[in-house]
Amino acid sequence: MPNQSFYFEKIKTNIGIIYILECQKGICFIAPANDPRVKKIQLELSPQEGLIYYTKIKKNLIQFLKKKEKLIKFPIYFILGSVFQISVWKQLLKIPYGSISTYSLVAEKIQNLKAVRAVGTAIGKNPIMIYVPCHRVIAKSGSLGGYAYGMLMKHKILDIEKSV
DNA sequence: CACGATGCTTGAA
DNA sequence: TTCAAGCATCGTG
């Protein structure tokens, strides 16, 4: 990774403590604080505590989870992931707020029609929850599919988006 | 490096 | 509902 300064913060929300990592180029990582990847990041990047670039994301995320305001777009900067994974994640960013896509549709969009299953695994490793809207991707059958942090969470987030 | 196992899928049986 | 095909990763040896 490039020589860049990273900043992190853990914020309290009504779905638990969320860890946010940023650098000048954008938001780099968001996940529940107990996600095992957080430890690795802290160890390898030793970021400083306290966001300085995209501080508004804290309030936005908290308010969003309270159904008080819509998600705001922030610059996204992927610091990890294979070419395949990043193409999947970038594709997710194209799904409009409040709308839904499917695993196979995403596979089709990235010109890898048959990699549907792989798309699922890649989405499962989404490094920036909510702002990279992996929750907007469901199974072609109409069922919700899966979610790294539990179906309960996916359902909740979708529900919030529907109502705000 | 080479396999085998795994995962937020799908379509067919 | 169960199963196998299909694909990128990851862990093992």
Radius of gyration: 15 Å
Classified in CATH, the superfamily of the largest domain is: Winged helix-like DNA-binding domain superfamily/Winged helix DNA-binding domain
Biggest sheet: strands, sense, closure? 4 strands, mixed
The helix content, as a percent range, equals 25-40%
Helices and strands in order:
Blueprint: E1 7-13, E2 16-23, E3 26-32, H1 36-45, E4 48-49, H2 56-65, H3 83-92, E5 101-102, H4 103-109, H5 116-124, E6 137-138, H6 151-163
Parallel strand pairs: 1-4, 5-6
Antiparallel strand pairs: 1-2, 2-3
Helix pairs in contact: 4-5
This protein binds a DNA duplex (13 and 13 nucleotides) through residues 82, 84-85, 102-104, 107, 112, 114-126, 134, 137-141, 144-148, 151, 154.
Q: What does this protein structure show overall?
A:
The protein has 164 residues and is an alpha/beta fold. The chain has two domains: 59 residues, no CATH class; 81 residues, Winged helix-like DNA-binding domain superfamily/Winged helix DNA-binding domain (Arc Repressor Mutant, subunit A), CATH 1.10.10.10. Helices cover 36% and strands 17% of the residues. Strand 1 and strand 2 form a beta hairpin. The protein starts with 6 loop residues before the first strand and ends with a helix. The mean pLDDT is 97. It binds a DNA duplex (13 and 13 nucleotides) through helix 4, helix 5 and strand 6.
